[in-house]
Amino acid sequence: MRKKIPALFLMLCLTIMPFAGCGGSSTGQDTTAPAPTTQSQPSETAAQEAPSGGEEITLTIWDWDEAHLTHMTSLYRETNPNVSFETLIVMPTDFMQKLQSALAADMDVPDIILGELLYRGRLFELGILDDLSQTPYHVNRDEMFDFAVQLQTGPNGELLGVEQQICPSGFAYRRDLAREYLGTDDPDEIAALIPTWDAFIEQGRNVVQKSGGSVHIFPGISVMVYETLKGQKPSSYIEGNKINLTERYLPMFELAARMNQENILGNQERETPALNSGFADGTFLFFPCPPWAAKWNIAASDPDGSGNWGLTKAPEGGFTRGGTSVSIYSGSPNKEAAWDYVKFVYCDGDGVKEAFEQFGFMTGFKAPYQDANSYFFTIPGAFDEFFGGQNLAEYYINEISVETQGQVQTRHESTIHNALLAVVAQMANDKSITAQQAMELLKQETATMIPEAEII
Amino acid sequence: MTQKRSWAPYIGLAIITVIMFIPLYTVFVMGTYYSEHIFRGGLPLWFSNYFLENLKVVLGNNFIQAYLNSLFVSVASVLLSVTASALMGFAIAKYNFKLKNFFFVFLMITMMIPNQITIIGFVREMRAFGMLGTLWPLVFVWIAHPFGAFFMTQFIRDSVPTEVMEAARIDGCSEPGIFFRIVLPFIRPALLTVALLVFLWSWNSFMIPLIVINRQALYTIPLMVSTLSTMFRTDYGAMMCALSISVLPIILVFCICSKNFVQGIANGAVKG
Known about the structure:
heterodimer; A: alpha+beta; 12 strands; globular; B: MetI-like fold; 13 helices
């Protein structure tokens, strides 16, 4: 009998073994089991659940902006003490893997789900988010900016989220460099100098010439293509598996290849330390700037640059860059409470004003901006002083948002973003790549990633 | 007649040592810089004066708690994994029982299954056991450690003479007694090797904690380090500072176990 003990132990361990991973890997790849794909129906029961009637409710939220999350949940609890929060800091790069794993393992899924543009198309096609235009939410699309509606629209036309903060973009610029190379630091005068991309290229040549090549008009090709041009002229180029890449991206590549070959762009590519240090070093003049970038890109990378930045319009109109959707999980047992919090912070509650004052967040709903005396225009925003006292909210709303359109996000759209990144990486390494060559590369990358697609 | 000593191998080894040490040294140096200053004019070679600021950022992100969590997970994983692996290896190497070969083949098959495939089943299992919301899933994943069991099987098969066990039995030693008093001293290098590897892997593990842990207070060091950056700005200075501190236990453990570690690897690999 004694001899059998180790053998029995062995059998027990081997029984457990198939369920155990080795745990040594940290690839971060999205390789977990797929989540349920059934499209959810708006719940009729949510309205009947008690949101704040004294019943203790715990809302789960995963976010990457800890300061905002902590502040806003604390503020909400002041008026809703029965609602507590379980918050977790999860980076956008890890968000989908964690979410899909939670769905597949049937463990704690957040009541409120954030969708960064990086993965929003895939998130929207999981079928786990409630349509906010339906009962019990009744969000009216007409009350939102056009680009916000487009960016929050799901594959079947549902409204799957609201904007965490709007993302229409202009160009942030360094005032000292603008005075030196453009002769002015006034936003309107600078906008008048670059009304078209042709004029922008011309100014780019001047900047390189005057600086002897030490300063460029824009950081690099990936910032230009992926962070700027991609978000400027959206179209409905994806219909099911039919993808018209040529119509959507060839004009963009023609422009980008010209800039590349004219050598007007720097070598500071997106998400690199060189780009981060470039803000303070003054090696580039313009940077694509939605409201959130004032905090996360400009002020974070150039902490000593307060007063030395300005905001102007991009050539040929506004564009969208990044942005985050805020959605309600269709399986949440606390939908009404979750929606109450979302309304409070992101739509029309007291939290909207607080988020603007403290963090510079601007709601995607139009109502607060329709009054000329709105606090958005009369109270200095969190980063107005950093931008030389410029009223950023007024500029974003009245100069940029009115002419900005958004790209509807789908699963294929997310995949094409990845393909696009692969192409711009090659364009960064080889400036001789032509628009046609870039187009072919994009088609090849897309075909590899979406084998079932019919690509034009 | 005196043999002339050649310095060439030592010079070669010194050069290789410096080359191998530079990346680690760079981590320590970068941890003393303000993030945006790190990449100005190439990688820095000497320390800067921003270490305390980086340390403040790191400590402000619940680093101590994450450190203790990682320490608990790694130490508990090592203890349980080494014990379980040694017992499994002992059973397969030295006992005959029904389906023994099947279990050995099954053991090897489980080594070949990528952990991404099994992770969902594991999470469900932990949920059924009511273990979610604790650090135990990060420990239990190492108990059923196929590589450890396989390594121990090979080592015990080759390094523990059956005659010594038989002699112990004749002298009246119990089977657990044989394991603890006879076998364990023979396999000390293998125990330390598996211990070091499990410590290293569990200390650096990212994917399983990412999926299993849903409370900030339970974050381990790799998860905590990932939150030092934002979507839009990577704080390399603070990250390197955190990594510098977090790598110290691994260096310490390796220094203590290095002799046995090398011996264990050599014995496990060469003997057939």
